[in-house]
Amino acid sequence: MDLAGRVLYRDGLVLVIDKPAGVPVHAGPGGGPSLEEGFDSLRFGWKRPPALAHRLDRETSGCLVLGQHPKALRRLGRLFASGRVKKTYWAWVAGAPAEEAGLIDAPLLKCSTRAGGWSMRVDGQGKQAATRYRVLERREDGTARIECRPLTGRTHQIRVHLAHLGCPVLGDKRYGGPAAPRTLLHARAISLPLYEGREPVAAEAPLPADISGFLDRAAAQV
Asked: Which sequence spans correspond to the domains of the chain?
């Protein structure tokens, strides 16, 4: 997989790439294709390929941060762990919240069943999780586009929080979303305060063609 054409930002410490939907960032226990297999095309003269600084779900597209070398990965790890990285997601959801903007503050707990496998749920015994949201667009077909800014980094946080709000992400079967070609969640932008005394490193991922095509078709049917 050649990812060089998907680079959104690059310097001596970090790369930000536009992750395509449908590909896991790394191979699971059962193997199969993964994004990491294409990191060799992102060396740009370095002796080793870059490595993941964080993760996105298989079906999520958009801004993904890689570290050029171990020192960079340690610095990035501290930024993510301290909550200083600003992440902006766009989600297309069924319905829309009553309020134009707000904070979803609901702890998340990982659970599993023999029949359904593992998932996350809102549970008072879980880990603290908070997401700010803002309605960007209310569509005639009863869906909405919502901007989400996670303040914590829990697994499936945005997906579960939006479902908890009563607005599941389109295509997200695991958390009650109506049918769509895939989970319509896009990591739109990211901001990394990587260098002291300088503006944060910023990148923005364009809207993927599969999402824009689906939205156009849905609008034509209204």
From this structure: 4-220
> Which amino acid appears at position 82 of this protein?
S
Q: Kindly give the pairing relationship between strand 7-10 and strand 14-19.
A: antiparallel
Closest CA relative to residue 178, chosen from 93, 115, 118, 120: 93
pTM: 0.94
pLDDT at 118: 85
User: For residues 88 and 103, what is the distance between their CA atoms, to the nearest angstrom?
Assistant: 14
Q: What's the whole-number average pLDDT of the chain? A: 94
- Residue 26 identity (one-letter amino acid): H
The rounded distance, in Å, linking the Cα atoms of 113 and 100 is 36
Provide the total of helices (H) and of strands (E) in the chain, helices listed first: 3, 12
- pLDDT tens by residue, 155-172: 999 999 999 999 999 999
CA atoms 119, 22, 206, 97: torsion sign: negative
Query: Is there a catalytic annotation at residue 141?
Result: no
- Residue 42: both structure tokens together: 């992102």
Residues, the chain, total? 222
Residue spans of alpha helices (H) in the chain: 70-81, 157-164, 209-220
Catalytic residue among 57, 105, 141, 172: 57
43-98 confidence digits (pLDDT tens):
998 899 999 999 999 999 999 999 999 999 999 999 999 999 999 999 999 999 99
CATH class of 4-220: alpha beta
